[in-house]
Design brief:
- By secondary structure, this protein is mostly helical.
- It has a single domain, classed as Mitochondrial carrier fold.
- 68% of the residues lie in helices and 0% in strands.
- The longest helix is centred in the middle third of the chain and has 39 residues.
Length: 358
């Protein structure tokens, strides 16, 4: 047979793409430790500021909690006066502060790990969706620590138990560990949409501010820099005062929007537990609350809830932007050292990818 008529062998198919690397729990834990350790000073400052806000606004939180569980509408000033006369403004202070202190480190570390994993495994997903997903996961993990503290605090605030020590003792004896997680589902039902709303509002406002600043900088340098368009750069960290203001605005909007979910969470956690419970779950709590007290019951305490959420978010995003500025400064110093040929060191142990990176 003519060799030119022989059929050539089929081409060798390309090797299949390697499967995505499995998420190693040890690697994830190492990333978590690196994120928290690299920003430990700022996180400590942020946690202390958050604890100070919790302590300072605890009377407002107590008024909100009482309003949410009262069977009939009452004036906030009257509720505040009764709490003050009874010396109950600061009931539940210890569990409130204890819940706030590690919560920031837990949520920040989880957020950093989840954000990095999503960037590696779902790069086509829009950045904003990755950030929201990472924040939601961070709140779910942080809620494992926050739920027991919230349970104890709200049972003391509503008079179910006289003090935190009595609450811990009786809850442990009658319900075990599960008693401290009563209403955990309601906590997530409040915090997950609140965080998603808060982050969406924050990113939208920040995006407008940074775009305006970038446009102003481009206009100022355009006449002297030639005609080539500047490369887009990642958003710069906000100045501290601006971060506090934008954080407060995002927290206020998210707090007001999720006030009914907060009321349901309070009603779930303020139960004594066991057969005496009025509500089986958050859906049952919503149905029963509207049936017995009317739809307005879910909006009681919306004003103190909004003020509290604004102050809390201002602290959170203030620390968040401070960590980003810390990382940006470390990266700038490392780049300058590399350009100068000095070598010798890293960027101060900051974790890969500052908060809010992509």
């Amino acid at each position: 047979m003519d060799p030119f008529l022989r059929r050539s062998p089929p081409p060798t198919p390309p090797p299949p793409p390697p499967p995505p690397a499995r998420l190693d729990a040890a690697a994830a834990a190492a990333k978590f430790r690196a994120a928290v350790t690299g920003a430990r000073t700022t996180l400590t400052d942020g946690a202390l500021a958050q604890a100070a806000v919790v302590a300072l606004l605890l009377p407002l939180d107590a008024v909100k909690t009482r309003l949410q569980v009262m069977p009939a509408a009452a004036r906030p000033t009257a509720v505040a006066a009764r709490l003050g006369a009874a010396g109950h403004w600061y009931g539940g202070l210890v569990p409130a502060v204890a819940g706030a202190l590690p919560y920031g480190a837990l949520t920040f570390g989880t957020y950093e790990v989840a954000k990095e994993v999503l960037a590696e495994r779902a790069p086509r997903l829009p950045r904003r969706r990755r950030l929201v997903a990472a924040a939601v996961l961070a709140d779910a993990v942080g809620g494992l620590w926050l739920a027991p503290a919230e349970n104890i605090k709200q049972k003391v605030q509503t008079g179910v138990y006289a003090d935190a020590a009595s609450a811990v003792r009786i809850m442990a004896r009658t319900g075990g560990v599960s008693a401290f997680y009563q209403g955990y589902g309601a906590l997530l039902a409040r915090d997950l949409p609140a965080r998603a709303c808060q982050l969406a509002v924050y990113e939208a406002i920040k995006g407008r501010l940074t775009a305006r600043a970038a446009a102003a900088a481009a206009d100022g340098s355009g006449s002297a820099a030639g005609t080539s368009a500047p490369r887009p750069s990642p958003p710069a960290p906000l100045r501290p005062a601006v971060a506090l203001a934008v954080g407060a605005a995002s927290g206020a909007i998210a707090g007001a929007a999720t006030a009914p979910l907060d009321a349901l969470k309070t009603r779930m956690m303020a139960q004594r537990g066991g057969p005496a419970n009025l509500y089986a779950n958050v859906v049952h709590a919503a149905i029963q609350s509207v049936r017995v007290d009317g739809p307005a019951a879910l909006w009681r305490g919306v004003l103190p809830r909004t003020v509290y959420a604004a102050a809390s978010a201002a602290c959170f995003f203030g620390a968040y932007e401070a960590v980003k500025r810390l990382h940006a400064a470390g990266a700038g110093a490392a780049a300058a050292a590399a350009r100068g040929g000095g070598g010798g060191g890293g960027g101060g142990g900051a974790p890969r990818g500052g908060a809010g990176g992509g």
